[in-house]
Design a protein that fits this description.
Number of strands: 0
Subunit structure: Homodimer.
Domain PhoU: 16-103, 119-203
Protein name: Phosphate-specific transport system accessory protein PhoU
Family: Belongs to the PhoU family.
Number of helices: 6
Largest sheet: none
Order of helices and strands: HHHHHH
Pfam families: PhoU
Shape: elongated
């Protein structure tokens, strides 16, 4: 009986990893639109978002299957319940990535986005944070999950630096409307990081209750 449960749990972990990979790809492709607008890439981000919705439903069914067939108790029950909570955050991450892509696609063609390397650095740090949170669940790594909240401070600092940079640029020659677009991209990245923190909190719950 335990062997069957472990198999179902491994399948659940694999589904979560696949959903996380979709999130990562969506964020990377959305940010790449800062360098070059491309309708195909924007459509891919939208498709990733739709696929995360599909994965959410598949994982919900997998969790229900485990509940009904395996009737998990104590720690196992918390683990499956946490997975149900985590996919809500992961689905919203897909939404945020699509929002970033939408903003990038409406930016005027003549804007020099290379003036904002901090946004790309922030995106890389956000993806790393998301991956750490998912890995902590799969590996039942309490230490890693506890550090996620501190790592989120890095993302918050990026947001502050980007905001201050945009304020300085507006004082010179930059279009305020475009500045709002860039600050919104940074804000969506910050929200993604917040979802990663939520995931880590559910990991801690799944381990210690």
């Amino acid at each position: 009986m335990r062997k069957k449960f472990d198999e179902e749990l491994r399948h659940l972990n694999n589904l979560l990893l696949e959903m996380a990979m979709l999130n990562e790809s969506a964020i990377k492709k959305a940010i790449s639109l800062l360098d070059e607008k491309d309708e195909k890439t924007a459509e891919e981000v939208s498709n990733y978002e739709e696929r995360t919705d599909v994965y959410e439903g598949i994982i919900q069914k997998q969790c229900l299957k485990i509940f009904v067939e395996q009737q998990p108790a104590a720690g196992d029950l918390r683990r499956v319940s946490s997975a149900l909570k985590m996919i809500t955050d992961m689905e919203r991450i897909g939404d945020n990535a699509r929002d970033i892509a939408d903003i990038c696609m409406i930016l005027p063609d003549d804007y020099d986005t290379s003036r904002f390397p901090l946004i790309k650095q922030m995106a890389e740090a956000t993806i790393l944070l998301l991956n750490k949170s998912i890995d902590s669940f799969v590996n039942l790594d309490m230490d890693s999950a506890e550090k996620i909240d501190d790592d989120d401070d890095v993302i918050d600092n990026y947001f502050v630096m980007i905001r201050d940079q945009l304020i300085d640029i507006i004082k010179s020659d930059f279009d305020p409307a475009a500045a709002i677009d860039f600050i919104m991209i940074a804000k969506y990245l910050e929200r993604i990081a917040d979802h990663a923190v939520n995931i880590a909190k559910w990991v801690m719950f799944s381990i210690e209750g």
